[in-house]
Amino acid sequence: MSFIHDDFLLSTQTARRLYHSFAKDEPILDYHNHLPPKDIAEDRQFRNLHEIWLEGDHYKWRAMRCNGIPEELITGDATPREKFLAWAKTVPHTLRNPLYHWTHIELKRYFGIDELLNEKTAPAIWEQTQAALARPEMSTRGILRSQKVRALCTTDDPTDDLAWHKKCADDGFEIGVYPTFRPDKALAVQQPEAWNLWCDKLAAAANTDINSFSALLTALEKRHDFFHSMGCRLSDHGLNRCYANFSTEAAASRIFDRYRSHRTKRLYPEDHELLATHIMLHVGRLNARRKWTMQLHLGPVRNNNSRLAKKVGADVGCDSIGDYPQAESLSRFLDALDTENSLPKTVLYNVNPADNYVFGTMAGNFADGTTPGKVQFGSGWWFVDQKEGMEWQINALSNLGLLSRFIGMLTDSRSFMSFPRHEYFRRTLCNLLGNDIEAGLIPEDDELTGSMVKNICYANAKAYLGLEVS
């Protein structure tokens, strides 16, 4: 039997029935990823496994560094084939890391390859996949079709002109390619020089001057309106923790003026917190008005290795789980919006599994009898998007909320090879439920459990997010 077989991860007969009958054939709504829309608009044809698999995958880069691979063979000037061979050399050392599973399920689903990837098999796999990638059906659009993707949401700065999203729509491409509003740079006053340059860029995009705090908020609102016109229905925010330093707009304006006028280059942490709180509340209100969903990705410590950050840049695999206090500030932020009836649908993503019960209980505090699962405890994210992390998140959500209302998995990926992560999640979900059924913990009722599986795989996300999908 090959390593990736029909019943991979499915340890009971009931788990196998649930997966094959109710989960396997459901389409995909990938509502958070970092795929470049340009590649979809141009229907990019990848030339080799490096381009489609290693080009921007910091998960793999991190593993290669841990295996003693020099940076030249990771993000440096080595040839694509040399970089792939370095990855192949690393793969056997990833046993019990999710990368080992992902690597082989992706080779199986995209290329029908059952061989284990290692130094010996790498040259033949390189040649075989290179030939396969040249086929028209392996272009970016062909991949989306073959993976049964109905819609996906990229991650986009408010200053983006969304020209590539427009091209996809104008082409009549049948799969929805929607932007997501990610205004993190609006908060980054702790880096005054870069923040001012970004404000200038936002001013140009919004066709306005940003010479006051109210002008900044207006510019963000104009871009929010533009994103809405382009089909956007979600915002996304990557934060250490929520900001909840409430003050007057006059105080926020004074801070804005000081940093915008370049009168200070020193960071005062309270300045950052206060300004960020105002901006996040502003975006939350805009989301509520437009019936968008707000995604809060909370908890990481980013770019820990300053030496590598200077050499290679940000987001290159040098991030960690943080241990920030989450509960009080998250509660106060959500409550501030809820108090004024401006809390949008919200998804809380937790990177630190120690906080799973904090997030699971927090989500239930702000149900309001309108939208089922209005505040979601989102899927296992980043360091916990593997089998064990998914199980922790599913179990916490089941114990503290309503698993049946869960909007399911996403790839959070920069690679077009990552869509089998939905399959990986679905197998994990069905295995948990199958084990519970065989243990007598939930009824053996396919109409009850099978319909829940189908909803978590696709229908819940479709109903919750309000995107134009079939």
TrEMBL record:
Gene3D superfamilies: Metal-dependent hydrolases (3.20.20.140), uronate isomerase, domain 2, chain A (1.10.2020.10). Keywords: Isomerase. Its EC number is 5.3.1.12. GO terms for molecular function: isomerase activity. Pfam families: UxaC (PF02614). Pathway: Carbohydrate metabolism; pentose and glucuronate interconversion. The keyword Isomerase applies. It catalyses: aldehydo-D-galacturonate = keto-D-tagaturonate; D-glucuronate = D-fructuronate. The keyword Iron-sulfur does not apply. SUPFAM superfamilies: Metallo-dependent hydrolases. InterPro entries: Metal_Hydrolase (IPR032466), Uronate_isomerase (IPR003766). This is Uronate isomerase.
